[in-house]
Amino acid sequence: MIKASATIASCEKHVLSLHIQKNIVCKNCSIFLDLLTPILNLSNTEKIYTIQVCDAQYILKDQQVELSINKNVILITACLIYMTPLLGLFSVGGICQMLLCNDKVTAPAALLGGAIGILITKKFSKRLTRLELFQPEVLK
């Protein structure tokens, strides 16, 4: 599992709004506490992600929690993002090359196949985000 530290901004109807600062990975370092102080100071918003997570337990505002996500989910997502457009690019390019034997038609058709692969990835990723497996878990 991959873990990240987060600060709770609000908790309404079991939906937590969390602030996660970029590039905070090491929680064993002595500087970890110094790195967490800018999270509460929201003037530096370009270095902070705000996400919403459903959680059944009631948690207080400004409380520190850990988020975790399974490594398999990250691998599935990375495979989907990178391989689907490549598969579209190579398959459409290969089919056009076999049928037409014309490079002037094959190159734009291959790019069209890559674009279709990107659209398929966007559509499929929206469906995957609805699954509970792809949601981060809140650890206390």
From TrEMBL:
Keywords: Membrane, Transmembrane, Transmembrane helix. The keyword Amino-acid biosynthesis does not apply. The chain crosses the membrane at residues 73-93, 105-121. Signal peptide: none annotated. The keyword Cell membrane does not apply. InterPro entries: SigmaE_reg_RseC_MucC. PANTHER family: PROTEIN RSEC (PTHR35867:SF1). This is Protein RseC, partial.
